Every structure is written in structure tokens, then in C-alpha cells.
UniProtKB/TrEMBL annotation:
Domain GST C-terminal: 90-212
Residue stretches making up the GST N-terminal domain: 1-87
UniProt protein name: Thiol:disulfide oxidoreductase
Source taxon at top rank: Bacteria
Species whose genome carries this gene: Xylophilus rhododendri
Length: 212
């Protein structure tokens, strides 16, 4: 059994997508970041950086005590290694996936996150900051669009790289991006969105943040 500490953010969705794709049994624990629940001592024992997602694996491969992990990229790699899927075992395939996973972690996620902040949440609208992060998000979309020009998924077969990237493309309207400008990315995005496991993962939103 996996305990998933989750909220309805792109990083939270990454792990719920993986768990649904893998068919692993898991229990979801909501951590409402709007109410600062990420600062509760019991959560900080699992995730000292006070960020979701985090997991506790009650059946780690070494047979030892339950294992807790934070940081979404590390969690994805751990879970992929645990079940032997979604991360190639061969040297070159593994590095392809790893590069694009870290591209998301170090590039797309932070830049799109700043896009969200300055465009939507910042109390003062700063045109320079908004323009900077909208343009950088567009540049990264272009990188991904070119990558997908001759392949179905980001790194060969469907992998944790796709699972990590997709949730950051979902809010493309908020990021002031038009997917029609990125046809290869749009085709990939629609294919991922149609996957039943992805749809089940996103159904958690209604459970934790039901529409009024």
C-alpha cells in the first residue's frame, strides 16, 4: 500500500497518474495547501520542504520499515524502479527518460509556476515579469513541440517523463499559450488526456475541490 500526500496541483497529479497507470493500491491523504496544511508537523516529518506530493511506501523492495519520499521526480523514479515499468532498464533509454524528467523539474515546472504566480496570483501585476514568464513558457512549449515532431511520446515509449510533463501543460490557458500553435504538442496532449488512468487521476480533483 502507498500513502499519497496530495493536493490538486500539477506536481500532485504526476503521482496520482503514475499510481493509476501502474494499478498500485494507494490511499490519498489531502494536504490542503490553501489552508497551510503542508506546515503541519506530521507532514513535515515526511516532506521537510513543506511541499506536496509525498509518499510512504509500506512495502519497500528491501522488506524494511516503511519508506517515505518527497520531491515528485524522485517519487516517480522510485515507483518506476519498484514496478519495473515506465523507466527503461537499458542505459540509453533510461537516460532519455531521465533527461526529459529533469527538463520538466528544472525548466517547465518552475517557469510555468512563475507564469501562474505573476499572471494570476500576484497582488501586483508586473508587466515585465508576466511577459518574461509567458515568453519562457512559450519557448519551452516550442522545445517540446519539436521533440514530439517524430515520436509518439517524449522519450520513446510512454514513461514517467510524459507523466511529469502533462500536468504542467493542462493549465495552458492560464499560461497564455494556445496549443494550436504547437501541433505536435497538441496531438500528444490529447492522446495523454484520453488515457483512462489519467482521467481517473484527475477525477480526484472533484473529490478534494468539488465545484460549487
Amino acid at each position: 500500500m502507498i500513502d499519497l500526500y496530495y493536493w490538486t496541483t500539477p506536481n500532485g497529479h504526476k503521482i496520482s497518474i503514475f499510481l493509476e497507470e501502474a494499478g498500485l493500491p494507494y490511499e490519498v491523504h489531502g494536504v490542503n495547501i490553501g489552508k497551510n496544511e503542508q506546515f503541519k508537523p506530521e507532514f513535515l516529518r515526511i516532506a521537510p520542504n513543506n511541499r506536496i506530493p509525498a509518499i510512504v511506501d509500506h512495502e519497500p523492495a528491501d522488506g524494511g520499515a516503511p519508506l517515505s519520499l518527497f520531491e515528485s521526480g524522485a517519487i516517480l523514479m522510485y515507483l518506476a524502479e519498484k514496478i519495473g515499468r515506465f523507466l527503461p532498464a537499458d542505459l540509453r533509454g533510461r537516460q532519455e527518460v531521465s533527461q526529459w524528467l529533469f527538463w520538466q523539474m528544472g525548466g517547465l515546472g518552475p517557469m510555468a509556476g512563475q507564469n501562474h504566480h505573476f499572471g494570476t496570483f500576484a497582488p501586483e501585476k508586473i508587466p515585465y515579469a508576466i511577459e518574461r514568464y509567458v515568453k519562457e513558457t512559450a519557448r519551452l512549449y516550442g522545445v517540446l513541440d519539436r521533440r514530439l515532431a517524430d515520436r509518439e511520446f517524449v522519450a520513446g515509449d510512454y514513461s514517467i517523463a510524459d507523466m511529469a510533463i502533462y500536468p504542467w501543460i493542462v493549465p495552458h490557458t492560464r499560461q497564455q499559450q494556445d496549443l494550436a500553435d504547437f501541433p505536435n504538442l497538441q496531438r500528444w496532449f490529447q492522446a495523454i488526456a484520453a488515457r483512462p488512468a489519467v482521467q481517473r487521476a484527475y477525477a480526484l480533483v472533484e473529490r478534494f475541490q468539488p465545484k460549487a
